[in-house]
Amino acid sequence: MALPALPTHLTLELVTPDHAVAHEQVDEIQLPGVKGYFGVLPGHTPLLAVLGVGQLWYRRGPDKTFVAIHTGLAEVLPDRVTVLCRSAERADEIDVARAEAAKQRAEAELKKPQMKPEDFERVRIALMRSLTRLQVASRTRMRG
Ligand code: ATP
């Protein structure tokens, strides 16, 4: 009996509570899982993954698009990846001055003595968001 053909593309659906960031046919996706970055190609085994703060990229042919992600969930199926996250911005949507100001605020707070553990964690994640946004903003669509 012939095996079913593997899908050749992935449909990526990337949404936040307030906007649809991407709905595209892509060849490859890399996602920021809480336990580390992982890649998805067409035909991937189904899985559910919790996402942390970091960069997501997707590739269509030679073109990669980078997105700054703030925590969410990804459902991976052989021909489809659905990502729901708290916030997501493509490089061209990022306000660099705002991210730089957020970074400086977080760094100043981290220098305060005797922070409560819950405050430290909140500020650490805010710093990661700002650094991720600055990193993504520094990329334009690039090849390879
Ligand atoms: P800030 O302190 O500047 O508000 P934040 O990390 O606390 O940053 P979030 O709570 O993660 O902000 O995001 C709130 C909303 O603002 C989201 O819709 C997010 O996409 C948007 N946002 C936050 N920072 C930026 C930025 N630098 N450029 C564009 N959009 C941003």
Q: Explain this structure to me?
A:
The chain has 2 domains: 10-92, F0F1 ATP synthase delta/epsilon subunit, N-terminal (ATP Synthase, domain 1), CATH 2.60.15; 94-143, ATP synthase delta/epsilon subunit, C-terminal domain (Single alpha-helices involved in coiled-coils or other helix-helix interfaces, Up-down Bundle), CATH 1.20.5. 26% of the residues are buried. Strand 3 and strand 4 (36-40) form a beta hairpin. With 144 residues, it is an alpha+beta fold. Helix content is 25%, strand content 46%. It has helices at 96-110, 117-137, and strands spanning 10-15, 20-26, 28-33, 36-40, 47-60, 63-77, 80-90, 142-143. The model has no long low-confidence stretch (mean pLDDT 94). Bound molecules: adenosine-5'-triphosphate. Adenosine-5'-triphosphate binds at residues 70, 87, 89, 93-95, 98-99, 102, 126, 129, 133.
